[in-house]
Amino acid sequence: MPITTAFNAFRIHNDSAGHRSGIEPVGIDDLSPGELVIKTAYSSVNFKDALAGTGEGKILRKFPLVGGIDVAGHVVASSDGKFKEGDAVLVTGCGLSETRDGGYGEYARLQAQWAIPLPAGLSLRESMILGTAGFTAALALHRMLDNRQTPEHGPLAVTGATGGVGSLALDIFSRAGFEAHAISGKPEQTDYLKSIGARQVLGRDALSTQRPMESARFGGGLDNVGGPMLASLLAQTAPYGNVATAGLAASHALDTTVMPFIIRGVSLLGVASAGTARAIREDIWQRLGGDWKPAYLDRICTREVSLSELPQVFPGMLAGGSLGRTLVVI
Protein backbone atom coordinates (compact mmCIF):
# COMPACT_ATOMS: atom_id res chain seq x y z
CA MET A 1 0.00 0.00 0.00
CA PRO A 2 1.73 3.25 -1.09
CA ILE A 3 1.80 6.01 1.54
CA THR A 4 1.05 9.14 -0.45
CA THR A 5 0.17 11.64 2.28
CA ALA A 6 2.16 13.15 5.11
CA PHE A 7 1.86 11.68 8.61
CA ASN A 8 2.90 12.73 12.11
CA ALA A 9 6.26 11.84 13.61
CA PHE A 10 8.33 12.99 16.58
CA ARG A 11 11.43 14.30 14.82
CA ILE A 12 14.74 15.45 16.32
CA HIS A 13 16.88 18.23 14.78
CA ASN A 14 20.28 19.67 15.59
CA ASP A 15 21.52 22.38 13.26
CA SER A 16 22.43 26.07 13.23
CA ALA A 17 19.19 26.76 15.09
CA GLY A 18 20.19 24.36 17.88
CA HIS A 19 18.66 21.17 19.24
CA ARG A 20 14.90 20.85 18.98
CA SER A 21 12.33 18.09 18.74
CA GLY A 22 8.61 17.71 18.36
CA ILE A 23 5.71 16.52 16.23
CA GLU A 24 5.90 17.43 12.55
CA PRO A 25 4.50 16.08 9.27
CA VAL A 26 6.82 13.83 7.27
CA GLY A 27 6.46 11.77 4.11
CA ILE A 28 7.50 8.17 3.63
CA ASP A 29 10.34 9.27 1.35
CA ASP A 30 11.74 11.40 4.19
CA LEU A 31 12.48 8.22 6.15
CA SER A 32 15.61 6.08 6.06
CA PRO A 33 15.55 3.41 3.32
CA GLY A 34 14.32 -0.09 4.09
CA GLU A 35 12.47 -3.04 2.63
CA LEU A 36 9.51 -2.81 5.00
CA VAL A 37 6.96 -0.11 5.70
CA ILE A 38 4.84 -0.68 8.78
CA LYS A 39 1.81 1.05 10.23
CA THR A 40 3.07 1.71 13.72
CA ALA A 41 0.94 0.55 16.63
CA TYR A 42 3.22 1.04 19.64
CA SER A 43 6.64 2.19 20.75
CA SER A 44 8.10 2.81 24.21
CA VAL A 45 10.23 5.23 26.17
CA ASN A 46 13.73 4.18 27.18
CA PHE A 47 16.46 6.17 28.94
CA LYS A 48 18.22 6.45 25.59
CA ASP A 49 15.07 7.95 24.06
CA ALA A 50 14.98 10.61 26.76
CA LEU A 51 18.63 11.48 26.14
CA ALA A 52 18.01 11.72 22.39
CA GLY A 53 14.77 13.68 22.62
CA THR A 54 16.18 16.32 24.97
CA GLY A 55 19.68 16.48 23.52
CA GLU A 56 21.14 15.62 26.92
CA GLY A 57 23.06 12.72 25.36
CA LYS A 58 24.85 12.34 22.04
CA ILE A 59 22.69 9.49 20.78
CA LEU A 60 21.87 10.52 17.21
CA ARG A 61 24.75 10.34 14.74
CA LYS A 62 22.88 12.20 12.03
CA PHE A 63 20.06 14.73 11.88
CA PRO A 64 17.18 15.05 11.48
CA LEU A 65 15.84 11.68 12.57
CA VAL A 66 12.54 10.36 13.88
CA GLY A 67 13.09 9.29 17.49
CA GLY A 68 12.19 6.01 19.17
CA ILE A 69 14.52 3.01 19.47
CA ASP A 70 11.58 0.56 19.64
CA VAL A 71 8.69 -0.02 17.25
CA ALA A 72 5.97 -2.59 16.58
CA GLY A 73 3.21 -2.70 14.01
CA HIS A 74 1.83 -4.32 10.87
CA VAL A 75 3.56 -4.47 7.50
CA VAL A 76 1.80 -2.39 4.83
CA ALA A 77 4.47 -2.75 2.13
CA SER A 78 7.35 -5.18 1.65
CA SER A 79 10.02 -5.77 -0.98
CA ASP A 80 11.45 -8.68 1.02
CA GLY A 81 10.04 -12.15 0.39
CA LYS A 82 10.17 -13.13 4.06
CA PHE A 83 7.49 -10.57 4.97
CA LYS A 84 4.08 -9.82 3.53
CA GLU A 85 1.40 -7.22 4.03
CA GLY A 86 -0.39 -7.72 7.33
CA ASP A 87 2.52 -9.40 9.15
CA ALA A 88 3.03 -8.21 12.73
CA VAL A 89 6.67 -7.30 13.39
CA LEU A 90 8.87 -5.55 15.93
CA VAL A 91 12.32 -3.95 15.93
CA THR A 92 14.37 -2.84 18.92
CA GLY A 93 17.70 -1.03 18.68
CA CYS A 94 19.51 -1.84 15.42
CA GLY A 95 20.31 1.81 14.77
CA LEU A 96 16.80 3.18 15.27
CA SER A 97 16.95 6.81 16.45
CA GLU A 98 20.73 6.65 16.15
CA THR A 99 21.69 6.24 12.50
CA ARG A 100 18.20 5.81 11.00
CA ASP A 101 14.65 6.93 11.63
CA GLY A 102 12.95 5.25 14.57
CA GLY A 103 9.53 4.30 15.84
CA TYR A 104 7.98 7.60 16.97
CA GLY A 105 5.87 8.01 13.85
CA GLU A 106 2.57 6.82 12.44
CA TYR A 107 4.59 4.85 9.88
CA ALA A 108 8.13 3.47 9.97
CA ARG A 109 10.41 2.20 7.22
CA LEU A 110 12.61 -0.65 8.42
CA GLN A 111 15.39 -2.93 7.29
CA ALA A 112 14.06 -6.46 6.93
CA GLN A 113 17.26 -7.96 8.35
CA TRP A 114 16.37 -6.62 11.81
CA ALA A 115 12.59 -7.08 11.79
CA ILE A 116 11.43 -9.86 14.13
CA PRO A 117 8.10 -11.57 13.44
CA LEU A 118 5.88 -11.05 16.47
CA PRO A 119 6.23 -14.17 18.66
CA ALA A 120 3.04 -16.21 18.98
CA GLY A 121 2.88 -15.64 22.74
CA LEU A 122 2.94 -11.83 22.56
CA SER A 123 0.59 -9.09 21.42
CA LEU A 124 2.02 -5.97 19.78
CA ARG A 125 1.25 -4.06 22.96
CA GLU A 126 3.06 -6.60 25.14
CA SER A 127 6.05 -6.58 22.80
CA MET A 128 6.52 -2.86 23.37
CA ILE A 129 5.99 -3.02 27.12
CA LEU A 130 9.00 -5.30 26.85
CA GLY A 131 10.84 -3.40 24.10
CA THR A 132 14.54 -2.72 24.50
CA ALA A 133 14.21 -2.89 28.30
CA GLY A 134 12.80 -6.42 28.33
CA PHE A 135 15.14 -7.55 25.59
CA THR A 136 18.10 -6.21 27.60
CA ALA A 137 17.00 -7.99 30.78
CA ALA A 138 16.50 -11.24 28.89
CA LEU A 139 19.84 -10.85 27.08
CA ALA A 140 21.53 -10.46 30.48
CA LEU A 141 19.97 -13.72 31.65
CA HIS A 142 20.93 -15.39 28.36
CA ARG A 143 24.55 -14.35 28.88
CA MET A 144 24.57 -15.54 32.50
CA LEU A 145 23.10 -18.91 31.56
CA ASP A 146 25.66 -19.28 28.79
CA ASN A 147 28.26 -18.89 31.54
CA ARG A 148 26.66 -21.61 33.69
CA GLN A 149 24.69 -19.48 36.14
CA THR A 150 22.24 -21.59 38.14
CA PRO A 151 19.73 -20.84 40.92
CA GLU A 152 22.02 -22.80 43.24
CA HIS A 153 24.57 -19.98 43.05
CA GLY A 154 22.19 -17.85 45.11
CA PRO A 155 19.84 -14.92 44.51
CA LEU A 156 20.32 -12.52 41.61
CA ALA A 157 20.54 -8.86 42.62
CA VAL A 158 18.98 -6.25 40.34
CA THR A 159 20.08 -2.64 40.76
CA GLY A 160 18.00 0.24 39.48
CA ALA A 161 15.10 -2.09 40.15
CA THR A 162 12.23 0.37 39.70
CA GLY A 163 13.27 1.31 36.16
CA GLY A 164 12.19 -0.46 32.99
CA VAL A 165 15.10 -2.89 32.68
CA GLY A 166 15.15 -3.53 36.42
CA SER A 167 11.42 -4.12 36.74
CA LEU A 168 11.33 -6.53 33.81
CA ALA A 169 14.47 -8.31 35.03
CA LEU A 170 12.82 -9.08 38.38
CA ASP A 171 9.86 -10.65 36.57
CA ILE A 172 11.90 -12.49 33.93
CA PHE A 173 14.47 -13.85 36.39
CA SER A 174 11.70 -15.12 38.64
CA ARG A 175 9.95 -16.77 35.69
CA ALA A 176 13.23 -18.51 34.83
CA GLY A 177 13.45 -20.07 38.31
CA PHE A 178 15.83 -17.65 40.03
CA GLU A 179 15.31 -15.82 43.31
CA ALA A 180 15.48 -12.10 42.51
CA HIS A 181 16.44 -9.39 45.01
CA ALA A 182 15.69 -5.74 44.17
CA ILE A 183 18.21 -3.04 45.08
CA SER A 184 16.48 0.33 45.19
CA GLY A 185 16.73 3.78 46.71
CA LYS A 186 12.95 4.13 46.63
CA PRO A 187 11.59 2.41 49.76
CA GLU A 188 8.10 3.72 48.93
CA GLN A 189 8.08 1.30 45.97
CA THR A 190 8.69 -1.84 48.06
CA ASP A 191 5.17 -3.16 47.48
CA TYR A 192 5.48 -2.58 43.73
CA LEU A 193 8.81 -4.41 43.56
CA LYS A 194 7.52 -7.40 45.54
CA SER A 195 4.40 -7.52 43.36
CA ILE A 196 6.51 -8.03 40.20
CA GLY A 197 8.78 -10.78 41.48
CA ALA A 198 11.27 -9.45 44.04
CA ARG A 199 11.74 -11.92 46.88
CA GLN A 200 13.53 -9.25 48.90
CA VAL A 201 13.82 -5.48 48.52
CA LEU A 202 17.09 -4.02 49.78
CA GLY A 203 18.20 -0.40 50.08
CA ARG A 204 21.20 0.99 48.28
CA ASP A 205 23.22 0.53 51.46
CA ALA A 206 23.28 -3.19 50.67
CA LEU A 207 25.83 -2.28 48.00
CA SER A 208 27.63 0.49 49.85
CA THR A 209 30.82 -1.35 50.79
CA GLN A 210 34.04 -0.15 49.19
CA ARG A 211 36.13 -3.09 50.33
CA PRO A 212 37.52 -5.29 47.55
CA MET A 213 35.91 -8.43 48.99
CA GLU A 214 32.90 -9.11 51.22
CA SER A 215 30.99 -12.19 52.30
CA ALA A 216 29.27 -13.77 49.32
CA ARG A 217 25.67 -12.55 49.48
CA PHE A 218 24.44 -12.93 45.91
CA GLY A 219 24.78 -15.52 43.20
CA GLY A 220 25.24 -12.71 40.69
CA GLY A 221 22.97 -10.11 39.23
CA LEU A 222 22.17 -7.39 36.74
CA ASP A 223 23.54 -3.91 37.31
CA ASN A 224 21.93 -0.89 35.67
CA VAL A 225 23.72 1.92 37.49
CA GLY A 226 27.50 1.39 37.29
CA GLY A 227 30.01 3.02 39.62
CA PRO A 228 30.46 2.00 43.29
CA MET A 229 27.32 -0.16 43.40
CA LEU A 230 28.62 -2.38 40.61
CA ALA A 231 31.98 -2.69 42.36
CA SER A 232 30.22 -3.64 45.59
CA LEU A 233 28.05 -6.21 43.84
CA LEU A 234 31.14 -7.86 42.38
CA ALA A 235 32.69 -7.96 45.88
CA GLN A 236 29.59 -9.76 47.25
CA THR A 237 29.11 -12.31 44.47
CA ALA A 238 29.49 -16.03 45.14
CA PRO A 239 32.20 -18.17 43.52
CA TYR A 240 31.73 -18.50 39.77
CA GLY A 241 28.69 -16.26 39.81
CA ASN A 242 28.02 -13.78 37.01
CA VAL A 243 27.27 -10.08 37.11
CA ALA A 244 25.84 -8.56 33.94
CA THR A 245 26.29 -4.84 33.36
CA ALA A 246 23.72 -3.04 31.24
CA GLY A 247 23.58 0.60 32.33
CA LEU A 248 25.29 3.62 33.82
CA ALA A 249 22.48 5.55 35.49
CA ALA A 250 24.85 6.55 38.32
CA SER A 251 28.28 6.45 36.70
CA HIS A 252 30.23 5.12 33.74
CA ALA A 253 33.27 4.58 35.97
CA LEU A 254 34.24 1.32 37.69
CA ASP A 255 36.81 1.45 40.47
CA THR A 256 37.42 -2.12 41.61
CA THR A 257 40.14 -4.75 42.03
CA VAL A 258 40.86 -8.08 40.40
CA MET A 259 40.17 -9.91 43.66
CA PRO A 260 36.57 -11.06 42.96
CA PHE A 261 37.77 -12.40 39.62
CA ILE A 262 40.90 -14.24 40.71
CA ILE A 263 39.78 -15.41 44.17
CA ARG A 264 36.14 -16.34 43.46
CA GLY A 265 36.14 -16.68 39.69
CA VAL A 266 33.39 -14.08 39.35
CA SER A 267 32.58 -13.03 35.78
CA LEU A 268 31.57 -9.53 34.64
CA LEU A 269 29.46 -9.79 31.48
CA GLY A 270 28.68 -6.90 29.17
CA VAL A 271 25.16 -6.55 27.77
CA ALA A 272 24.97 -4.54 24.53
CA SER A 273 21.44 -5.01 23.26
CA ALA A 274 21.42 -2.59 20.32
CA GLY A 275 23.73 -4.59 18.05
CA THR A 276 22.86 -8.15 19.07
CA ALA A 277 23.09 -10.67 16.23
CA ARG A 278 19.80 -11.65 14.62
CA ALA A 279 20.01 -15.34 15.59
CA ILE A 280 20.30 -14.42 19.26
CA ARG A 281 17.51 -11.83 18.89
CA GLU A 282 15.14 -14.41 17.47
CA ASP A 283 15.93 -16.89 20.24
CA ILE A 284 15.42 -14.33 23.01
CA TRP A 285 12.15 -12.99 21.58
CA GLN A 286 10.81 -16.52 21.29
CA ARG A 287 11.61 -17.07 24.96
CA LEU A 288 10.02 -13.74 25.89
CA GLY A 289 6.86 -14.96 24.22
CA GLY A 290 7.22 -18.35 25.90
CA ASP A 291 8.79 -19.60 29.13
CA TRP A 292 10.37 -16.23 30.02
CA LYS A 293 7.26 -14.14 29.34
CA PRO A 294 6.84 -11.82 32.34
CA ALA A 295 3.77 -12.51 34.43
CA TYR A 296 3.20 -8.86 35.41
CA LEU A 297 3.46 -6.84 32.20
CA ASP A 298 0.32 -4.84 32.90
CA ARG A 299 1.63 -3.95 36.35
CA ILE A 300 5.03 -2.96 34.98
CA CYS A 301 3.41 -0.75 32.33
CA THR A 302 2.72 2.19 34.62
CA ARG A 303 1.97 4.81 31.97
CA GLU A 304 0.65 5.11 28.41
CA VAL A 305 1.29 8.27 26.38
CA SER A 306 0.81 9.64 22.89
CA LEU A 307 3.49 11.09 20.61
CA SER A 308 2.57 14.62 21.65
CA GLU A 309 3.10 13.78 25.34
CA LEU A 310 6.70 12.61 24.92
CA PRO A 311 8.33 15.95 25.87
CA GLN A 312 6.61 15.76 29.26
CA VAL A 313 7.95 12.24 29.88
CA PHE A 314 11.66 12.73 29.13
CA PRO A 315 12.74 15.08 31.97
CA GLY A 316 11.29 12.91 34.71
CA MET A 317 13.01 9.83 33.32
CA LEU A 318 16.38 11.60 33.18
CA ALA A 319 15.87 12.76 36.76
CA GLY A 320 15.36 9.16 37.93
CA GLY A 321 11.64 9.58 38.52
CA SER A 322 10.31 6.88 36.22
CA LEU A 323 8.66 3.71 37.44
CA GLY A 324 8.37 0.60 35.30
CA ARG A 325 7.65 1.09 31.62
CA THR A 326 6.06 3.87 29.59
CA LEU A 327 4.20 2.67 26.50
CA VAL A 328 3.76 4.96 23.51
CA VAL A 329 0.41 4.39 21.81
CA ILE A 330 0.48 5.56 18.19
Kindly list the characteristics that best describe this protein.
single chain, Quinone Oxidoreductase, Chain A, domain 1, Rossmann fold, six-stranded parallel sheet, 9 helices
Describe the structure.
- There is one protein chain.
- The protein has 330 residues and is α/β, with parallel strands linked by helices.
- The chain folds into 2 domains: 7-118 and 297-329, Quinone Oxidoreductase, Chain A, domain 1, CATH 3.90.180; 133-270, NAD(P)-binding Rossmann-like Domain (Rossmann fold), CATH 3.40.50.720.
- It has 9 helices and 16 strands.
- The strands form 3 sheets. Strands 3, 5, 6, 7, 8, 15 and 16 form a 7-stranded mixed beta sheet that branches. It has a 6-stranded parallel beta sheet with strand order 11-10-9-12-13-14, with helices on both faces.
- α1 (47-54) packs across α9, α2 (124-146) packs across α3 (164-175) and α2 (124-146) crosses α7.
SSE pattern: EEEHEEEEEHEHEHEEHEHEHHEHE
Terminal residue distance: 19 Å
Oligomeric nature of the chains = single chain
Indicate the CATH topology of the largest domain. Answer: Quinone Oxidoreductase, Chain A, domain 1
CATH class of the largest domain: Alpha Beta
CATH superfamily of the largest domain: Medium-chain alcohol dehydrogenases, catalytic domain
Shape: globular
CATH architecture of the largest domain: Alpha-Beta Complex
Number of helices: 9
What structural category arises from helix and sheet content? Answer: alpha/beta
Q: In percent terms, what proportion of residues is strand?
A: 25-35%
